Amino acid sequence: MQFEIHNANGGQYYWKIVASNGRTLATSETYWNKSDARSAAQSVKTYAASAPIVDKTGASSYGRW
Length: 65
What we know:
- The protein is of the alpha+beta class.
- The protein has a domain at about 1-45: 2-Layer Sandwich (Double Stranded RNA Binding Domain).
- Helix content is about 20%, strand content about 25%.
- The chain is built from one helix and three strands.
- The protein has one helix at about 35-45; strands spanning about 1-5, 15-20, 25.
- A three-stranded antiparallel β-sheet has the order 1-2-3, with helices on one face.
- Strand 1 and strand 2 (about 15-20) form a beta hairpin.
- The longest helix has 14 residues, at about 35-45.
- The chain starts with a strand and ends in an 18-residue tail after the last helix.
- The relative contact order is 0.18.
């Protein structure tokens, strides 16, 4: 898995998380500066592993996993 920084339209930048099989797992919003895109990708890389998964659908999934 890797983070990639890409050029977007209008001179902006965005990042993607790409799996080893080439599948895109996540895509960011666009940023005016490459350094901002890189910084945002680094933040996701640093903090995502400890982030909880929160179900906001309102549906009870107890016992359905």
